[in-house]
Amino acid sequence: MAFPATRPQIDYEDDVLLLDEEQELRTLVVYNDDVNTFDHVIQTLIDVCNHEPEQAEQCTLLIHYKGKCAVKNGTFEELEPRCSAIHDRGISADIV
């Protein structure tokens, strides 16, 4: 008597561990000072933060009248080089 060829049953784990790394969003804040001109701060925001001229001007007015302005949101890794570039231009900024 011939037995039919059978395949061994293999149980596979279908559970997959997904790494859902949640990165905390931070804010890049620029502060007012008595040294830098409006034009310098506006140009810096255009160059470093990719702001449109109107957006950069509005942020600069807020910096001047309110003492600070949140100019960009993102992860620390995204904001850190921008913050350094702003510092390099003599403007005070922090990531909060």
Automatic annotation (TrEMBL):
<dbReference type="GO" id="GO:0030163">
    <property type="term" value="P:protein catabolic process"/>
</dbReference>
<dbReference type="Pfam" id="PF02617">
    <property type="entry name" value="ClpS"/>
</dbReference>
<keyword id="KW-0645">Protease</keyword>
<dbReference type="InterPro" id="IPR003769">
    <property type="entry name" value="ClpS_core"/>
</dbReference>
<dbReference type="GO" id="GO:0006508">
    <property type="term" value="P:proteolysis"/>
</dbReference>
<keyword id="KW-0378">Hydrolase</keyword>
<dbReference type="InterPro" id="IPR014719">
    <property type="entry name" value="Ribosomal_bL12_C/ClpS-like"/>
</dbReference>
<dbReference type="GO" id="GO:0008233">
    <property type="term" value="F:peptidase activity"/>
</dbReference>
<protein>
    <submittedName>
        <fullName>ATP-dependent Clp protease adaptor ClpS</fullName>
    </submittedName>
</protein>
<feature type="domain" description="Adaptor protein ClpS core">
    <location>
        <begin position="23"/>
        <end position="88"/>
    </location>
</feature>
